Amino acid sequence: MRCCVRSGRPVTAGGRAAASDTGLAGRRVLYGSMEFRYLGASGFKISEITYGNWLTHGSQVENETATACVRAALDAGISTFDTADVYANTRAETVLGEALKGERRESLEVFTKVFGPTGPKGHNDLGLSRKHITEAVNGSLQRLQTDYIDLYQAHRYDYETPLEETMQAFADLVRQGKVLYVGVSEWTSEQLRAGHALAQQLGFQLISNQPEYSMLWRVIEGEVVPTSEELGISQVVWSPIAQGVLTGKYVPGEQPPTGSRATDDKGGRSMIARWMSDDVLARVQQLRPVADELGLSMAQLAVAWVLQNPNVSTAIIGASRPEQVHENVAAAGVRIPAEALARIDEALGDVVERDPSRTSERSPKTREA
Predict the structure, then answer these.
(1) How many domains does the chain have?
(2) Residue range 250-306, pLDDT digits in tens
(3) CATH classification at residue 340
(4) Could you tell me if residue 203 is inside a domain?
(5) Is NADP among the key words of this record (predicted)?
(6) Percent of the chain with pLDDT over 70
(7) What is the arithmetic mean of pLDDT over 70-82?
(8) I want to staple 78 with a disulfide (CB 3.0 to 4.6 A). Which of 73, 195, 347, 351 is the partner?
(9) How far is residue 69's CA from residue 232's CA, in Å, rounded to a whole number?
(10) 61 neighbors 92 (Cβ within 8 angstroms)
(11) Domain enclosing residue 246, as ranges
């Protein structure tokens, strides 16, 4: 029996969570088994679990399997889907668009991003210039087979384009109806503050930031989260399971399981390498008793953990098999007791990365053709 509880936070007749809810992004509405949270200081609701197709669609898994994963997400109550034009050099968007074809568009929240190099990767095929943003959004709309994007995100900060140019381009897309809301990804607290101020001047809202966040990677907690709470910006977090390390399937001193991300030569192995030391893996194994006592799998514990942060609106999960979707979705609504949270901190100790300066490393300082 679980000693954690599922939260059914009260909702007013108008559909908003009651004022007793903690934190802006923690306002939530409950429909069936999937919970929905508001994104930033807006009236836009998204599912507490988002299905993302980074490193999978168009690259690591076949299109048929990718579509099955999307169908599993829809069946599990997920309505929010995240992708980016740079994933598999636009193929991920195409696969997602095909998988969602025939669904009621109004019932979905489709997110994508702009920044990374796409197409032939020419000198204007990347960054956040007006030219690239304008051309990129048109390509994304075509590939996703939709008339509008719910949340369009600056995938990184562009040091070589004036921020005023970038935010004006986003403002124009909002006014044209091609984009409903604007967010960013891996921006520092200073960048968020500057972007938020310009958005206000231009008449639209900057409502979200998409950073990496997990039990092992907590760099947003020191500066990004406090600034975001002040500005009305929510976190849409990626890699809550730390590329699969927090599932506990990687055991110190043993070879990675065949077919796992740590054995993938298409990109998975390089992404997970930083977590594959015996020290990290041994500490992760110490989380298993905590998960067992809560009646959760290790993956569910990891996803539920990021959702305890009141500034987090949704956790992005990926999958290479439909059953992974069903397992991770079970983390929605779980509340981890304070005692268990303390045990998690004690188990992981000093292998947790907390340095706020690590966020600034995510955005390249130059754009190379």
Answers:
(1) 1
(2) 898 877 776 666 556 665 667 788 888 999 999 999 999 999 999 999 999 999 999
(3) 3.20.20.100
(4) yes
(5) yes
(6) 85
(7) 96
(8) 73
(9) 32
(10) no
(11) 5-355
The runs of H, that is alpha helices, within the chain are 63-75, 91-100, 130-144, 163-176, 189-202, 224-231, 268-272, 278-285, 288-294, 298-306, 322-329, 338-348
Token pair recorded at residue 191: 């960048």
Exactly one of 31, 38, 51, 87 is catalytic; name it. 87
208 has which bridge partners?
183, 234
CA dist 318 and 328 (Å) reads 9
Residue 364 maps to a domain: no
Quickly state the pLDDT bin for 186 (edges 50, 70, 90).
very high
**Mean predicted confidence (pLDDT) in 319-326:** 89
Q: Which sign, positive or negative, has the C-alpha torsion 12, 16, 19, 20?
A: positive
Q: What span, in angstroms and rounded, lies between the C-alpha atoms of 246 and 347?
A: 13
- Which residues make beta-bridge pairs with 235? 209, 312
In angstroms, rounded to a whole number, what is the distance separating the alpha carbons of residues 314 and 292? 24
Who has greater pLDDT, 201 or 17?
Answer: 201
In 3-state terms the chain splits into helix, strand, coil percentages (rounded to 5) of 40, 15, 40
Confirm whether 87 is a catalytic residue. Answer: yes
Alpha-carbon span 89 to 75, nearest angstrom: 28
Look at residue 273 in the predicted model and tell me its pLDDT. 82
Asked if the structure places residue 106 within a domain, the reply is yes
What's the pLDDT at 194? 98
What are the phi and psi torsion angles at 262 (to 5°)? Answer: -70, -10
The number of beta carbons lying within 10 Å of the beta carbon of residue 58 is 21
Asked if residue 367 is part of any domain, the answer here is: no
Residue 96 burial (CB count, 10 A): 27
Q: How far is Cα 140 from Cα 149, in angstroms, rounded to an integer? A: 9
pLDDT of residue 248: 94
Measured between its terminal Cα atoms, the distance across the chain in Å is 56
Residue 140 β-bridge partners? none
Task: Pick left, alpha or beta for residue 203 (phi over 0 → left; psi -120 to 50 → alpha; otherwise beta).
Answer: left
